[in-house]
Amino acid sequence: MSQPNQFTWLGNAGLQFEFKQTTLLVDPFFTRPNWHYLLGGRPLADESQIQEHIRRADHILVTHAHYDHLMDVPDIARRTGATVFGSYNTYRLMEVCGVTLTQLRMIHVNDLIELPSMQISVLPAVHPWLPFYTAGKLRANLHPPLRLHEYRMDECFSYYLSTNGLKLLVWSSISNRGAIPANILFIRAVASEEWYGEMLAVVKPKVVIPTHWDDLFRPLEQPIRPFFSPPRLAIPPLQRIDLDDFTRKIHNVNPDCRVLLPEIFREYNLCELIV
After folding, report:
1. By the 8 A CB rule, do 240 and 44 touch?
2. Count of domains in the chain?
3. Is 96 part of any domain?
């Protein structure tokens, strides 16, 4: 067991926290199906990667039901017995994939999750528009293994974790609405300097950590690299996410705020980060 108050970046939006005797995961995702599965096919979860990187889990938070946040959660829940918290679509998809109903907890915005070593507030989040992956109802008669587009989102959440004097904000929204002060802010790496200025003015974090910036189609056996930023009206229209530019924007709006670009699967002591 890791020491208490540790965090590990699992790649993409995935986070692992160790608080006293509790292991909490957020959006763990290791399978990384090839891009051609966006067009069709039924990819299987990569059980070897899951088993290598997740030894235990007590609770899993799901921000929304897209495949790159949810696909590996059923396998992890079955292996570990973890309780899974998520929206109605998350609940239903977990049920379809064979997770025991006693392990599932449906949540909504403004809910407060009370766990032995922490409190978790469920905050509103706004997901960017994606073609073929818009919000809506699940298809009827789903059966695993699911097609990637069948992981359809409904609600989207951010999470505020309070434990042992630490206040952590896992922000999965393109909106600033609902943000609250925190010591450490986990945030998207593709926004304007103005947006970061507004966000940091509210949250006032000591440390900012970018997530969901690496190439979700690149297998974990290969070195990670940034994913593409949203298309722009320029030449070239597609560029990979620039973490140096992200760091510059954060320091421009708050020079005293530390930016941590975490190494994948490395453990960090949360208390040491905010000293």
Report:
1. no
2. 1
3. yes
| pLDDT given for residue 1 in this prediction | 47
Phi, psi dihedrals of residue 161, rounded to the nearest 5°:
-110, 130
- Asked, for residue 120, whether it belongs to a domain, the answer is yes
What whole-number distance in Å separates Cα of residue 63 and Cα of residue 45?
A: 19
For 163-221, the DSSP string reads: ETTEEEEE---SS-TT----SEEEE-S---HHHHHHHHHHH--SEEEE-S-B-TTS-TT
**What angle, rounded to 10 degrees, do the helices at 193-203 and 243-253 form?**
50
Section 147-174 average pLDDT: 96
Three-class DSSP category at 236 = coil
Alpha-carbon Rg for the chain, nearest whole angstrom, is 18
Instruction: Tell whether 124 is covered by a domain.
Output: yes
Name the DSSP letter for residue 54.
-
C-alpha distance from residue 165 to each of 111, 115, 117, 120, 250 (Å):
21, 15, 11, 13, 24
Q: What is the pTM of this model?
A: 0.96
Pairing of strands 22-26, 184-187: unpaired
Q: Is the pLDDT assigned to residue 131 strictly greater than 60?
A: yes
Structural domain span for residue 171: 6-273
The owner of tokens 């392990």 is 103
Q: List the one residue out of 176, 181, 58, 188 whose CA is nearest residue 113.
A: 58
The per-residue pLDDT for 95 is 97
Under 8 Å between Cβ of 102 and 91? no
Task: List the CATH number of the domain containing 195.
Answer: 3.60.15.10
Query: How many CB atoms are located within 10 Å of the residue 253 CB?
Result: 17
Q: Examine residue 1 and state whether it is found in any structural domain, yes or no.
A: no
The pLDDT tens digits of the residues spanning 79-124 come to: 999 999 999 999 999 999 999 999 999 999 999 999 988 999 999 9
Specify whether the CB–CB gap between 202 and 181 falls below 8 A: yes
